[in-house]
Amino acid sequence: MTIKMIASDMDGTFLTANDMYSQRRFERILDNLKTRDIRFIAASGRQVKNLQDLFSPTTSKGYEIDYVGSNGAMVATHQEQLYSVHLSPEQLHKVIDWNARNPESAENIIIMTGDNATYVSNHATGPVAKMVFQFYPNVKQVEKLMAVDDHILEITFVWPNNEVQQHVSELREIFGDELHATGSGFGSVDVLGKGVDKAAGLQVLQDYYNVLDSEVMTFGDNDNDLEMLKKYDYGYVMPNADNFMLEAIQKKALNTNVNDGVLQTIETYLGI
Fold first, then answer.
1. CA dihedral over 214, 219, 221, 224, signed as positive or negative
2. What is the pLDDT of residues 63-104, one digit of tens each?
3. What is the dotted CATH code of the domain comprising 5-84+196-270?
4. Which of 8, 45, 78, 214 pairs with 38 at a CA distance of 20 to 30 A?
């Protein structure tokens, strides 16, 4: 096989813990990828700005990384933004109204990812608020989410329980094809525009760099990775993923995220 693009999810996949990765080992791989004209893509539920900050210790040395952020709602090369899909005001109102009328949503937190900032209710406190400030750049706490003046890429619901798949199923049943709901770990569910997912985001980069589906390798561990793991022949699920992911995807990375499974699998492919 000839690979021209490698895309990896971040949390639970590429990152070991606490936003850490094996920088020296990764940069050695990037040196090898460059000689073979292979692009590396960070594909995450996180915003592009967060990903850029995460990899700044590496990119500041001249290494090039491209980005599929907000679960595919925004795509950027190392130089420029290529693509973004926003929720309409009507869609926002419909989702937030559904949440307000859902008795199971009494204790959840709503996060809205916009072009200019991330917005969360000023009622968010404790561990949830800490999580928001860790994973999202430029967080603003507001009284009324519908009064926010920004273009919104996605809405994230964070529930105090881990019944993510149940909430995803409910949202998909209610909104059908109008919106795309997906679980992204940490008890959260993301709601995006129609047809928005990581595979669609990667397609934007494939078109930009003229890369075929057969030339793409992907890594992931959660529901929001399923589309990009199923689409490509070389889609690898992490051994540390939940059972429903391990059953859905045949190929397994060579190790868990905390043991640099993505890097180990890439090294094996490269023969280094």
1. negative
2. 999 999 999 999 999 999 999 999 999 999 999 888 888 777
3. 3.40.50.1000
4. 45
* Contact of 41 with 202, CB cutoff 8 Å: yes
* CATH architecture of the domain with residue range 89-193: 2-Layer Sandwich (3.30)
pTM: 0.92
Amino acid at 195: G
Partner residues linked to 75 by β-bridges: 68, 83
In angstroms, the first-to-last Cα distance of the chain is: 16
What gap in Å lies between CA 59 and CA 254, rounded to an integer?
26
